Amino acid sequence: MLGNRERTTKWLAGGALVGLLLARAGMTAGELDPGPGEIHLQGVIRSVDIEEKSFVLDAASFTLPNGSTRSLSQPRPKTIEIGETAVFLRRERTRTVELGELKPGFRALVVGKDLGSGKSLPAREVAVWEKIVNGRYALGSAPRPVSKPAAPKPTEPPAATEPAAPARISGAGGEWPQWRGPDRNGLSRETGLLDSWPQTGPRLAWRAPGLGGGYSTPTVAGGRIYGMGYRGETETVWCLDAATGRSVWVAEIARANRGVGYGEGSRCSPTVDGDRVYVLGVSGDLVCLDTARGGIQWHRSLVREFGGRIPDWGYSESPLVDGDRVIACPGGANATIVAFDKQTGRDLWRSRVPEGDMAQYASAIAADVAGQRQYIQFMRGGVIGVSARDGRFLWRWNRPANGTANCSTPIFSNGFVFAASGYNTGGGLAQLVPNGGGFTAREVYFTRDMKNHHGGMVLVGDHLYGCDEAILTCLDIRTGRATWQERSVGKGSVTYADGHLYVRGEGGSIALVEANPQRYVEKGRFSQPERSSKPSWPHPVVAGGKLLIRDQETLLCYDVKGVL
């Protein structure tokens, strides 16, 4: 049935990631054949139910176990149970697909055991695509052209080494005081780190168990490590001693919300600013605590007070501290983005974005554009910019958004914004051009080679590194062309430090890769011990000569500066 194709399956318990099939290029629909006692359905996806791990197929034809094929005069709905199914999309290469990527209108080919008329069909294999070109699977509205017209040339190329006037939290070079580090761009200031790892990986310095479930990436400031998680039915903020991993304090901020997707725990990375730490809970609880003992200084609700609506996978944003204010995004027409006084929690202004975008899963950044301070955020409908002074709406760019979940934090450099999302969308570069009292986001290019889901991207020099779904990719930021692509550890997150990429696959493998724009050079790899059954989504953190890896209840600390 699968001929000589190599098949690999990898199951993550409780997740929406359902499998991986490696197939030879140019596979045709006829090559996915039913086995003994199996039925073969072909049709169009009507709806997808992520929680039930199923979708409804409007079947147009079917092949019975005896080999006879029939076409239906009218499509017949059939519920397809994913179970242990290989679901894949075909383009230049096959890749792992999340159930959430399947959309109504996608065509599907299903093989599985038929339980009778009107019953659901437990599928063994499912292929999905958008159309057939010359009898072969094709993803997208047309085959990719061999060459494309030159993109409009920007007035000046993006200077990619460092964003202009980022929202920088004060701290020593060995700190990581907020989401994606000191400058909120995924770049560590650490130097003198190991330039290769032994087969077993760097030395484990300590481990801290019992932190509570969740996907919160830790932050580091003042010799302490901060994070969030669910302990029982309570959402908590925790603080550890960075040298030993011992608990300093734990503070309760809200009731655990297990009704969201992946309800194991918090998503937010605490933001540390001086003697205060700012967090956002899954249900929209924006809380300020003191760093000494975790005492709550003020507490606001993005839902009750500002009309926000909890996203399907919960509020995931990490608060942005910029000067005397804290920025958070309730979402909606009346308070899309809100600025709070960081000392008192009093709201300073409410930004009303014309399309009333709902909150998504990215975190805001600050940028100076043509002399004007802006806050840039990836909302449900697209990337937007508002004035830092009063929240006035300035511009929007919808192309990078998908209809499911926009997660990756945009990257700003010298008047340009790069933004990308997964779910078969991609990313691109836009130049922010003053236009009267506002700005226009003038698209420079858009590429399908950076379908970045939630692992983030880093800009080093003139090159952007991140995962294009399950493929680690290096793009020339000036043109959008990929200079190399490598499967590496699969789909995952990326952090930069001292000339290297720290790449963490969501399956648990961690690799050290040169930030080399010419070719992929791996300098070490190891598999994280004590793996939970959940995806490894928290990003790697490099601070104080240590590599921090969080996996649900446990935080692991590796020495990446000492002599091996």
Determine the number of helices (DSSP H or I, runs of at least 4 residues). Answer: 0
β-sheet strand percentage: 35-45%
**Spans of 5+ residues with little confidence (pLDDT < 50)?**
1-32, 89-96, 131-157, 159-165
Average pLDDT confidence is 83
Principal-axis shape equals globular
Query: What's the total number of strands?
Result: 43
Provide the gyration radius in Å: 24 Å
The largest sheet is:
5 strands, mixed, barrel
Helix fraction bin: under 10%
- What spatial order of strands do you see in the largest sheet? 3-4-5-9-8
Q: What class would the helix/strand composition place it in?
A: mainly beta
Distance between the termini: 49 Å
What features would you describe in this structure?
By secondary structure, the protein is mostly beta strands. It has no helices and 43 strands. The strands form eleven sheets. Strands 3-4-5-9-8 form a five-stranded mixed barrel. The chain has a four-stranded antiparallel β-sheet with strand order 12-43-42-41, with no helix packed on it.
Write the SSE topology.
Blueprint (H helix, E strand, L loop, with lengths): L6 E2 L11 E2 L16 E12 L4 E10 L5 E13 L4 E4 L5 E2 L10 E7 L7 E9 L1 E3 L2 E3 L64 E6 L10 E3 L2 E8 L2 E8 L5 E9 L15 E3 L2 E5 L4 E6 L5 E6 L18 E3 L2 E4 L8 E5 L5 E5 L13 E5 L2 E7 L4 E5 L5 E5 L13 E3 L2 E6 L4 E10 L2 E10 L9 E4 L2 E6 L2 E6 L5 E5 L5 E6 L2 E6 L3 E6 L7 E6 L13 E3 L2 E6 L2 E6 L5
Parallel strand pairs: 5-9, 6-9
Antiparallel strand pairs: 1-2, 3-4, 3-8, 4-5, 6-7, 8-9, 10-11, 12-43, 13-14, 14-15, 15-16, 17-18, 18-19, 19-20, 21-22, 22-23, 23-24, 25-26, 26-27, 27-28, 29-30, 30-31, 31-32, 33-34, 34-35, 35-36, 37-38, 38-39, 39-40, 41-42, 42-43
